[in-house]
Write a structure and sequence with these properties.
Elements: E1 2-7, H1 15-25, E2 29-33, H2 44-49, E3 52-57, E4 65-70, E5 75-78, E6 92-97, E7 100-106, H3 116-133, E8 142-147, H4 171-182, E9 186-187, H5 188-192, E10 218-222, E11 230-235, E12 251-255
Parallel strand pairs: 1-2, 7-8
Antiparallel strand pairs: 1-12, 2-4, 3-4, 5-6, 6-7, 8-10, 9-10, 11-12
Keywords: Hydrolase, Magnesium, Metal-binding
Enzyme class: hydrolase
Family: Belongs to the DNA repair enzymes AP/ExoA family.
């Protein structure tokens, strides 16, 4: 099974890019972020024609998340991150797909910092940590994937010097991510490529794409049940090279679900 995450940076503007990627790479599950569209503007018909059922939560002009499933419909579990009933930003979806629990998230950027946007980022991160703690030891296989808006270490950025004041590199942000992993989650891309500089995002300034001046901010985390199934992980860099592309590239994992240990049958006494 191939599961991917992709910040599309506007699903209406870049629908052709999305459909081309789905046709070429055929992920079984695709988590999308930054739809920048209301629910009624989501291209359900076009995605259905491409072979994908969808669950989505839109928002005007920014945010918005979706889970796509090839040949089936995701089964909704929840439409928001627990912990703040007053939070109206569309940043989290959770669904069951072919026996997996899939969490799709778009963590707040947090810039400029310090300030209220950074405070919101950290508060949202704390809510994610609390919710993830209920999933990491679940008997069900769980994957939490999306745009985390955190560069975990200096190894995950081309050059941290000019980004030191950015919310993505702040010690508080990195500490939240480290505490999340410490629960027992596997950072799949880093696990497969421990010594390779792998990037998932290249901004539009100063020819960062052309010079491979990237950041790793899109992550796919596997809980303890799912981690043994990890076969491969990578980035579909060719999508970032398309004309008028998103500043993110799809990031993915391949899983061998046959590796999952079935529960031992109870012995009769």
């Amino acid at each position: 099974m191939k599961i991917a995450t992709f910040n599309v940076n506007g699903i209406k503007t870049r629908l052709a890019h999305l459909l081309r990627w789905l046709e070429r790479e055929q992920p079984d599950v695709a988590c999308l972020q930054e739809l920048k569209a209301l629910d009624e503007g989501f291209p359900e018909r076009e995605l259905r024609d491409a072979g994908y059922g969808a669950l989505w939560k839109g928002q005007r002009s920014w945010n918005g998340v979706a889970i796509l499933a090839r040949g089936t419909d995701p089964l909704e579990i929840r439409r928001e991150l627990p912990g703040d009933a007053a939070d109206e930003q569309s940043r989290y979806l959770e669904a069951a797909v072919n026996g997996l629990v899939v969490g799709c998230l778009y963590l707040p950027n947090g810039n400029p910092q310090p300030g209220p946007k950074f405070d919101y980022k950290l508060a949202w991160f704390e809510r994610l940590i609390a919710h993830a703690a209920t999933l990491v030891d679940s008997p069900h296989p769980v994957i939490l994937c999306g745009d985390y808006n955190v560069v975990p270490t200096d190894f995950d950025i081309y050059n941290p010097r000019s980004w030191r004041k950015d919310a993505l590199l702040q010690p508080e942000t990195r500490d939240c991510y480290a505490r999340l992993l410490a629960q027992g989650w596997t950072d799949s891309l880093r696990h497969v490529h421990p010594d390779e500089a792998v990037f998932t995002f290249w901004d539009y300034f100063r020819q960062h794409w052309e010079h491979n001046s990237g950041l790793r901010i899109d992550h796919l985390l596997l809980n303890r049940k799912l981690a043994p199934s990890l076969k491969a992980a990578g980035v579909d860099r060719w999508v970032r090279g398309e004309q008028k592309a998103s500043d993110h590239a799809p990031t993915w994992v391949e899983l061998d679900l046959d590796r999952l240990t079935a529960p031992s049958p109870k012995r009769k006494i």
